[in-house]
Amino acid sequence: MRKHVYGPINSRRLGKSLGVDLIVPKVCPLDCIYCEARATTDLTMVRREYVDIDEVLAEIDRVLAEIPAPDYITFSGAGEPTLNSGIGQVIGHLKKFHPHNKVCLLTNGLLLKDQKLQQELAGLDMIIPSLDASNDEEYQKINRPVPGETLAKLVDGIAEFHRNHPSVFMALEMFIAPGINDSDESLSRFETLVKQISPDAIQLNTLDRPGVIADLKPAPTETMKKFAAALDRIVPVTFISNVN
Ligand code: SF4
Questions:
Q1: Would you kindly state where each structural domain of the chain is located, as residue ranges?
Q2: Fewer CB atoms near the end CB (10 Å): N or C, the chain?
Q3: 216 lines ligand 1 (CB under 6 A)
Q4: What is the torsional sign of CA 217, 109, 160, 103?
Q5: Residue range 80-108, pLDDT digits in tens
Q6: Which of ligand 1's atoms lies nearest the C-alpha of 28?
């Protein structure tokens, strides 16, 4: 029986991706309106061993011995993976005992300003942090962070991680929410933030499956293409939602 490892799933951006979930539902420093893992019940920045790391390592070893090698082993799941204080131990284990597997982290990026966490994540091959807001008003409407968290802190943390660890490929994921962050003014602010972070790539997303807020709609194709055309002048952009 599996508790912490799922898949591999066919991922549009990662190929065959074996998921590792280090969190219990639903612990996160954000409560995003588009979250597919339902509403956050424990809104926190506190890092601790939310699930037993020895159990996770044993399960990873067992699953990897049973399946063809995946393209990526990916930290994601029903909460924010970096909240688990053992994530560095898991990355170290993967690098030591499964060195041919590439390792990716999907993260909201809030904890990246933590220097200790930055060290723990140094062995990643890829990191995909999220940037969904171009100002604090949008941040509060879309991501609904832990009180006291600001967009400037988030962007500074993501940018600093990328500066300190340039060998970790960074794809910045951006979620476009119609009526909230899709105006020309938002796009212009996003261009400034993307230049500040200077990621290796951008992955543009909008709603594919129902989120926490029932009346949230996908961004129209024209909007997605407008954002892609503008941001692609800064770094390469791909779509990870259905855009025709
Ligand atoms: S950061 Fe991820 S897990 Fe947390 S609420 Fe947002 S979408 Fe859900």
A1: 5-239
A2: N
A3: no
A4: negative
A5: 999 999 999 999 999 999 999 999 999 99
A6: 4
